[in-house]
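hi! just following up on the protien thing from before. the input was this:
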Amino acid sequence: MKPIPEALEACIGQRVDLIDTPALVVDLDAMDRNIQRMADFARKHHVRWRPHAKLHKSAELALLQQRAGAQGVCVQKVAEAEALAAGGVDDITITNQVIAMPKLHRVARLAAQLAARGGRLGVAVDHSDGIERLAEAMTQYGSDAGIDVLVEIDVGQGRCGVPPGEAAVPLALAVARSPRLRFAGLQAYHGRAQHLASTVGRKEAIAQVVRAAIHTRQLIEEAGVTVPLIAGSGTGTLVHEAASGVFGELQAGSFLFMDADYARNEREPAQPAFEHALYVKTQVVSVRDTHAVCDAGHKSHAIDSGLPTVALLPADRTLRYANGGDEHGLLYADAPDARLPSLGHMLWLIPGHCDPTVNLHDFLIGVRGGLATGTVERIIRVDARGALT
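and the predicted 3d structure came back as:
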């Protein structure tokens, strides 16, 4: 477990304006409201929610969500699963394919560890070789714990997964025949649909996903294997999967923090009112006639989904963030009469993409009471930072 630096420990109880910059800050009040809204939404629609921990990579936040009713967590990497398990998380699904035998041995070991404390581990597959290797690793490890296996179908992401329909049937049968594997259902995640700009586009995309999942389930069950669960979904489309009556588990993760990229899309009327809860605190370190410069460059926030937006500004100070390189951001007045911030002024940035932004930081600074006058309540470890394997 990473020790919290003394300088960060000393921040606890201090005013938010004393946080050094650049720093990744969580508005704990907004985050708590997001968790409650997600829990209420899942309860209303009678679906499980298993939030994706690749967003926050924190055992503390994963357990917080589980206490609010989450089934467990999803991760993408074996190392993420190991880090969260070490932090006390007991119900984990790796929504990704694991092929290399050294990794599969780690999967088998982790499955046994979780089962010994009453938990479970799941993993996705999309090839018969992957199933055989997973079964072999479980046998070599000699554990009777078993592991939940989801057959992944490609419902539009164009990444992993077999085509929906007939191609999934032999995989489901192979899993069901294995004594050390448990067929847990279908993984049907359409990542591209999450960021379609219009509500109509997202609705149409998920309608196709639902049809593909129903068809695949029907074929598998006609072959004699029950499909106990269809899982997937994300923050951008969860209203449609939840309303389908087909998906039994929502795996949205970004709702916890929300980023600038999600804010650019048309909001679903039925979606819970998720708030921005993750911010990069930055300070103006230089001022020119045409622009100001802050100390948060793209070493402090990811830019793969666009640049951050500047938040919490007064009406007369609308600013546009521009890329200033590794260590700097450029701030331009967005209107002719808007004023630039002065030297030393503190600003808050909403990252373009939360997941890789969190992965740039060892710790999150949790603030209670708002970003204007609140205080630092706790320091949150990013346990799975850099967990790439």
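Residues 19 and 69 are 32 Å apart (CA to CA).
DSSP finds eleven helices and 17 strands in the chain.
cheers
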